[in-house]
Amino acid sequence: MTSTKNATDMSDIGKLKTEPDGSFKRLASSFRNSIKNDGQFIPEKGRYHLYVSYACPWATRTLIARKLKGLEDFISVTVVSPHMGQHGWPFKNADPSWQDADDDIAHPNLQHIKDLYFLADQNYGGRFTVPVLWDNKLNTIVNNESSEIIRMLNTAFNHLLPADKAAIDIYPEAHRQEIDGINEWVYDTVNNGVYKAGFASTQSAYENAVYPLFKSLDRLEEMLKGKDYLVGNTLTEADIRLFVTTIRFDPVYVGHFKCNLRDIRHGYPNIHLWMRKLYWNNDAFKSSTKFDHIKEHYYWSQTVVNPSRVVPVGPVPDIEPL
Ligand SMILES: N[C@@H](CCC(=O)N[C@@H](CS)C(=O)NCC(=O)O)C(=O)O
């Protein structure tokens, strides 16, 4: 079942509009419920489902958290095709040209992520973004904001998990203030900063994004000197949130988004080492990173930036060995 509502302008990144000054503003997510013991959405094995794209840095946060917490048997996953086109993110049945994607087993007739949003709310008027945390029981969206989903995964299922997985805490009480502080400027200037640079449609909007981005990378480079983690010598959500942007940096953001004052592999040795250790030593990071999805998505889907849809062959390798 595909919605008959015409939602093309809401789902086509090719029709993306910038602000009058040429800058890009990301809209807030719309579904903001929580999985918790005393609410509508109680923690249960097999009840919830994640819809993700391997291309999307925000969705990849949730894949990393799910794997770190050992929630693979609790929360199933559907991976969409990286070809985000006219109707937004397609399931496999709507894009036979990309084999490494899934159909929506729970709703086999759906063709796109937008159909899910209309199942949850037939009057939905926002963007059709991934990740989507879906409730199979109430047939609706619990939450579509990655920063909130990873915090739910961190704690909501702990009483159902083996002790070693329950003990993993990516938002530890003692470090919350520091993590929140880092998240704030990393989100604005790095995670979203690359998009602001890439989608800017004026020189000044671009420069207003790209200089603060590199200033923040310089700051992170100092912070990571001799360190495996950003905060408190332990793996936290601050690492996850930075990793998903830095891993896409050399393959995509340097070229496609014009973030090219430096790249990570030559310009930032401390960030580079921190990132390679996470990728090569921790399968939650490696298994959630698919460079073919990443490159295909940005260069194919964002025709405002790359009208030819030609995907560059480099850099080689996608990530260097340790
Ligand atoms: N704030 C959201 C952002 C999610 C987001 O923007 N996802 C992008 C893909 S990287 C998307 O699905 N965009 C579709 C659209 O904007 O139409 C989150 O962190 O979950």
TrEMBL record:
Gene3D superfamilies (alphabetical): 1.20.1050.10, Glutaredoxin (3.40.30.10)
Annotated residues for binding of glutathione: 89, 127-130, 145-146
Cellular component GO terms held in the UniProt record: cytoplasm
Catalytic residue list: 56 (nucleophile), 195 (proton donor/acceptor)
GO molecular function: glutathione transferase activity
PANTHER family (UniProt xref): GLUTATHIONE S-TRANSFERASE OMEGA-LIKE 1-RELATED (PTHR32419:SF6), GLUTATHIONYL-HYDROQUINONE REDUCTASE (PTHR32419)
Protein name: GST C-terminal domain-containing protein
Phylogenetic placement of the source organism: Eukaryota, Fungi, Dikarya, Basidiomycota, Agaricomycotina
